[in-house]
Amino acid sequence: MNIKGLARGLLAAFFAFSAPVGAQDETVSVTEGVNHIGLAVSDLEASAAFFTNTLGWRRAGGDPDYPAVFVTDGNAFVTLWQVTDPATAVPFDRKNNVGLHHLAFTVGSLKGLHDLHARFLNAEGVRIEFAPEFMGQGPTTHMMIREPSGNRLEFVVPGSRVRAEKAKAEQAEGSR
Fold it and tell me: What sign does the dihedral 91-98-105-167 (CA atoms) show?
């Protein structure tokens, strides 16, 4: 696709999602975004340690009777629920089971994404599906992993942040 075609497509998408709601669609949303995500895990402590030790999140509580651990990065909130019998739990299968395909987190910079990749290489129980790469033609960059209980997690640096990093680096190089 050439740049004009891409620009027309983006402009059409912008207008499709920003245009006033038509008379045939007068439904007003009663929700205000995601409150939290709940993930069933086979190893509660390993999954909690992944979020706190590897990602730098903090524990925000839990329920030992369920059992569950609540973790947050200050923006997102994830509840990790221990399955009753890990030995008989059905493993995650994104192609054959209805439900969560993956959970994606925004990362602030390419450096942050590459730092996470380096951490994941040494994190026990983490399986990397693919290292940082362009999403489509880029510049949005992402990677996909499985945390210790097998849940599929994606980490994404939006294209706007990649472009801003590049412009900042070019500006710094030009001022030398």
Answer: positive
pLDDT tens per residue, the chain (176 residues)? 444 454 444 434 443 444 444 456 678 888 888 889 999 999 999 999 999 999 999 999 999 999 999 999 999 999 999 999 999 999 888 898 888 899 999 999 999 999 999 999 999 999 999 999 999 999 999 999 999 999 999 999 999 999 999 999 999 988 87
Q: Are 123 and 17 in contact (CB under 8 A)?
A: no
* Strand spans (E) along the chain: 37-41, 58-63, 68-72, 77-82, 103-106, 127-134, 141-146, 152-157
Residues 6+ apart with CB under 8 A from 79: 36, 37, 38, 39, 68, 69, 70
SS3 breakdown of the chain: % helix, strand, coil, rounded to 5?
30, 25, 40
Whether the CB-CB separation of 125 and 50 falls below 8 Å is answered with yes
The CATH number of domain 34-84+100-174 is 3.10.180.10: yes
Q: Are 109 and 157 in contact (CB under 8 A)?
A: yes
Sheet with strand 152-157: strands edge to edge = 103-106, 152-157, 141-146, 127-134
